[in-house]
Design brief:
The chain contains four helices and no strands. It has about 110 residues and is an all-alpha fold. It has two domains: about 10-65; about 65-105, no CATH class.
Length: about 110
């Protein structure tokens, strides 16, 4: 049976700490970005990113899912989305670099 995540106060969890840090960072970035004029699509993408972060953080904090399972789910959804994109090979190169950087791989 897999170990469930307790509340962050009881069980420090690196993934939750990173997600909370990212949320604080994103909030700071949003405040800074609000000072500048963003185009419509950029504002929509930032909103989607914030929604995804909120969902991920909520489920990690609740202990509903394991971080590894959630990463697998997100990978599956990204792969499904990329099936419908032209030039996916070039996009994959960018995604791979971003993913490795964010995950501190290499």
């Amino acid at each position: 049976m897999s170990k469930r995540i307790q509340s962050p106060e009881k069980t420090p969890n690196k993934v939750i700490q990173i997600a909370e840090h990212a949320k604080r960072r994103d909030t700071a970035r949003k405040e800074k970005a609000d000072a500048f004029s963003l185009d419509h699509e950029a504002r929509i993408l930032i909103g989607i990113s914030n929604e995804i972060d909120a969902i991920v953080l909520r489920h990690l904090q609740a202990g509903d899912v394991e971080p590894r399972d959630l990463a697998g789910l997100l990978s599956h959804r990204l792969g499904t989305l990329m099936c419908h994109i032209e030039g996916k090979e070039k996009l994959w190169d960018v995604c791979e670099k971003v993913l490795k950087k964010q995950a501190a791989i290499d």
